[in-house]
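User: I'm curious whether this sequence folds into something compact or stays loose and floppy. Could you predict its structure so I can see for myself?
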Amino acid sequence: MSKFKRFFAPESPGETFELKHAYIGDKQQLFARVIFNRLTEKQFQKRQAKITEKEKPKNRAYSEKSKLVAVLNVYVTNTPWEWVPMEQVHELYTLRWQIEIVFKTWKSLFKIDHNRNVKRISNNPSIPSELKV
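Assistant: Here's the prediction. I'll summarize afterward.
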């Protein structure tokens, strides 16, 4: 049985698999790492409930293929394996999304996108570019 098919087998919840030599892009082929993380049964049930909830009000039906793939989290990254091993990708993306939500909340609360003083901040060389939103 191939590694990919094994992901859909009931005995592999929580397992992680990586495509090491993946290339993405239509015109320019770029190297990427594609990591598949099989959900546990509890996580999958929660995801299925969300899918069912989305289907009802919009009178939409997800294909069987979509429902089959819903058992996976898929991460696409170009970070080298030496920097981020396959086993740490999920934790890194989880942390990234938490930080993203914090910044989105700050942007909403402090109305950063409506503030005209943002231009002065972006031109200030004493503020590191990583902190400029």
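Summary: The chain is about 40% helix and 20% strand. The two ends are 48 Å apart (CA to CA).
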